[in-house]
Every structure is written in C-alpha cells, then in structure tokens.
Design goal:
The protein is an alpha+beta fold and 182 residues long. It folds into 2 domains: 44 residues; 132 residues, Rieske [2Fe-2S] iron-sulphur domain (Rieske Iron-sulfur Protein, 3-layer Sandwich). Helices cover 32% and strands 23% of the residues. It contains 4 helices and 9 strands. The strands form 3 sheets. The chain has a 3-stranded antiparallel sheet, with no helix packed on it. It has a 3-stranded antiparallel sheet with strand order 2-3-4, with no helix packed on it. It has a 3-stranded antiparallel sheet with strand order 5-6-7, with no helix packed on it. The chain is elongated and about 85 Å long. The N and C termini lie far apart (80 Å).
Length: 182
Amino acid sequence: MAEAKTGAQAGERTTRRDFLELVAWTTLGVGAAATLWPFIDSLNPAADTLALATTEVDLEPIEVGQRVTVVWRGKPVFISHRTPEEIEQARATPLEELKDPEPDEARAQRPEWLVVIGICTHLGCVPAGNRAGEERGGWGGWFCPCHGSHYDTAGRIRQGPAPRNLDLPPYTFVSDTVVRIG
C-alpha cells in the first residue's frame, strides 16, 4: 500500500509542477509582450504623418504659367499650370532623346496641370525653377544646381546625373479646381 500512496503523491507533484511551469511561462510571455509593446507601437506612423497622408489643393488661384509648391508627407510637390507652349514642347519631344523615356500624356492626367514630387532623383536635392526668377534649366522645367540635372516641362530628365524623371505622386482631381494628392 505504501507504493500506491507514493505513486499518487508523485502524480500530484507532477500536476503541481506542470501547473507552476505553465503559470511561470505564461507570466514570462505576458511580461515580455508588455515590455516589447511600446517598442512595437513606436514603429507605427505618428499622428501628424497620418494627417498628412492626403493633401487637397485648390487650383483656382494658380494662373497659367505659374508654379506652386505644396507639402505632402513632408515632401515638396510641384504643381505647374502649364502654358499651351509648354504642353506642346513636352509632347513634341521624341522619346528616343530622353534618358528615361515617358510620354507627356503618361505624366499629366490633365495636360494643363503637371503634379510632380519636387525631389531630384539623383541625390534628393530640391530643384530650382518653381518660383519666379529661378533658373529653370535648358528645357524650361527645373534645374538642380547641386549636380546640374536639367528637367523639361514634363519633369523628365534631359541632362545631368539624375537617373530618372521626377517622381509622380498619386493624385486625383476631385473637381475641376481641386486636386487630392495621396
């Protein structure tokens, strides 16, 4: 009979040990998750970044030939109200002359409005040519004075070390006079 009691006691100890082990591992897991959660949560975008996810711009005050700069997600975005001459010049350019061939029609949803991210694709500088009186380069678009990249009126690279055209942000026209970027 002593053996039977010893067997029962051993079963109880195993059950207690298993329970204590389960509690210990659960506590360790919950503690680790609670400790790591602030770090994991910090990887989410900040509230001010989320607020800048889209930007709406009223195009009505922008006159033909004028360019403006707006900020979207902390980046400059150039909006150009192109003249008929600028549109014609961009469309008349043979694609084989371009380093990064892309037709003007693929770059502007509406011919009179060009919307590009104003960051040089070479080293991330902000090209000149968006304000009146600034150098616009040899093709009337934008000029990056840091390394000499020239862009045309469609934001396509024409000369210099930049490997590709100015990037296009996602945008839609919500009305005839309002564009939503993002």
